[in-house]
Amino acid sequence: MYKVKVYVTLRESVLDPQGKAVTHSLHSLNFPEVTDVRIGKYMELIVEKSERNLDEVINEVCSKLLANPVIEDYRYEVEECVPQ
Asked: Which end of the chain is more exposed for a tag (fewer CB within 10 A), N or C?
């Protein structure tokens, strides 16, 4: 069994209005040293071992559902875990 941590972020070329709003708010709160914020998503998946290659499964899950491949990039980390 695996725990897969998936991080989805907007591509660098895509404008991030939510990140800009947070940056502006931080400046209003007197944090001028924060020059840019990019907002993303974080998900944890528990995946059973199977005959399929884990990387293929995760890439398919991410590209078909968790991330929009037109405007988002994703990366993931895998760790083995003990069933509870």
From this structure: C
75 Cβ contact partners less than 8 Å away, ≥ 6 residues apart: 6, 7
Q: What is the mean pLDDT of each run of 10 residues along the chain (84 residues)?
A: 97 96 98 97 96 97 96 97 77
The CATH number of the domain holding residue 73 is 3.30.1280.10
- The CA distances from residue 51 to 2, 55, 65, 70, in Å, are 14, 12, 21, 30
For Cα atoms 11, 15, 18, give the angle at the middle one, nearest 5 degrees.
105
Number of domains into which the chain is organized: 1
Residue whose entry in the numeric block shows the structure tokens 């001028």: 32
